[in-house]
Design goal:
The protein is an all-alpha fold. Helix content is 72%, strand content 0%. α3 crosses α9. The chain starts with a helix and ends with a helix.
Length: 302
C-alpha cells in the first residue's frame, strides 16, 4: 500500500497515468464525437483546416476520426496481449522454478527455443498464413512474445523458492499451487508490473508494424492500418505528413507514458535510483561529480 501511495506521488508516474487516462477516454467516447472514420468527407489529401483539423486521407476520410477510432482497437490489443504474455510467462516461469528438475529443464529448453527465433520474421510468417483480423494479430503476438517474460520471471522465482517463508509454507503442508500463487507471485509484484508494461509497449509496436505491412485486416480502422493506407497513398513522397504523423505521435506518446510509469516503479522500488537535485547541487558546489556515493560522503557534503 505504501509503495502504491509513493507511486502516485511520483511525477513520472503521474504523467504516465494522466496520459494513459486521456487515451483511454479518447478510445472510449472519442469515436462517437468525431463521426464515421470510413466516410468520405472532403477532397483526398486535403491539408489540415478548420473544418478538418488533421486533414484528410488519400480516400478523403477525416484523419482525426481515423486516429481516434484506431486508438480503441490498438490499445485493446496492446494491453490484452501484454496481460496474456505476462500471465503465461508467470505460470511457466514460476512453476518451472518451483518444481525444478526435468520439468524445469524442459521448460527452459522451450523458452530458449522461442527466444532464439527472430521475432518480427516469425510474426510475419505466422500472420501471413492465418486469417486476417485483430484476434489473429493478438494470438500471434502472444505466441511469439511470452518467452521473454517467462525467462525473467523464472530467474526471480528461483531466487525466492529457497527463502524462509517458502520453506515454512512447505513444512506447513501447503500445496505447491498455493505456495506459488500466494507466497512466490505476490513477492514479484514490481517485476510482474514492469514485465506487463514492457510487454504492452512491445505489443502495441508490433501490432502497428504487422498491420503496417498489410498483415492485418485493412478494412478495419487501427493505428496500424492508418499507417498502411498512408504508405499505400505515397503520403511521404507527396508531402502529406498529416496522414501519418498523428498516428505515429500517438504510438510514441503511449509508449513514452508507459516507459515513464515503468521508470517510476523502478525508482520507488529502489531508492538508490531516485534523483536528488539538492544533493547533486551540493556535490557540484564541492567540485565533485553528482551521482551515487556512500552515506559518509553525503554527510560530509551536507
Amino acid at each position: 500500500m505504501n509503495t502504491l501511495r509513493a507511486l502516485f506521488r511520483h511525477r513520472r508516474a503521474l504523467f504516465g497515468f494522466a496520459t494513459l487516462m486521456v487515451f483511454a477516454l479518447v478510445a472510449l467516447v472519442g469515436p462517437w464525437l468525431v463521426g464515421d472514420p470510413a466516410a468520405q468527407v472532403a477532397r483526398p489529401l486535403s491539408p489540415p483546416s478548420w473544418s478538418h483539423w488533421l486533414g484528410t486521407t488519400g480516400q478523403g476520410q477525416d484523419v482525426l476520426a481515423q486516429t481516434v477510432a484506431g486508438a480503441r482497437t490498438s490499445l485493446v490489443i496492446g494491453f490484452t496481449v501484454g496481460l496474456a504474455q505476462v500471465t503465461i510467462g508467470a505460470l511457466v516461469g514460476t512453476t518451472a522454478a518451483y518444481v525444478g528438475g526435468l520439468f524445469d529443464d524442459a521448460c527452459t529448453l522451450v523458452i530458449n527455443v522461442f527466444l532464439i527465433m527472430p521475432g518480427l520474421p516469425l510474426m510475419v510468417i505466422v500472420a501471413a498464413y492465418l486469417p486476417t483480423g485483430s484476434v489473429t494479430i493478438a494470438l500471434v503476438l502472444v505466441a511469439t512474445g511470452w518467452a521473454w517474460s517467462a525467462r525473467v520471471i523464472r530467474a526471480q522465482a528461483l531466487s525466492l523458492r529457497d527463502k524462509d517463508f517458502v520453506l515454512a509454507a512447505r513444512i506447513g503442508g501447503e500445496r505447491p499451487l498455493r505456495i506459488v500463487a500466494f507466497e512466490i507471485v505476490p513477492n514479484m509484484t514490481s517485476l510482474l508490473t514492469s514485465a506487463f508494461i514492457g510487454a504492452t509497449i512491445y505489443a502495441i509496436g508490433a501490432e502497428v508494424a504487422l498491420e503496417f505491412l498489410g498483415l492485418g485486416d485493412v478494412s478495419h480502422v487501427t493505428w496500424g492500418t492508418n499507417l498502411y493506407w498512408a504508405s499505400n497513398d505515397s503520403a511521404l513522397l507527396t508531402g502529406a505528413w498529416w496522414t501519418f504523423v498523428p498516428t505515429g505521435a500517438c504510438v510514441a506518446l503511449v509508449g513514452f507514458a508507459l516507459a515513464m510509469i515503468n521508470t517510476a516503479i523502478d525508482e520507488v522500488g529502489n531508492p538508490r535510483l531516485r534523483a536528488e537535485p539538492a544533493y547533486d547541487a551540493a556535490l557540484a558546489r564541492a567540485g565533485l561529480r553528482p551521482g551515487l556515493s556512500t552515506p559518509v560522503l553525503r554527510r560530509e557534503v551536507r
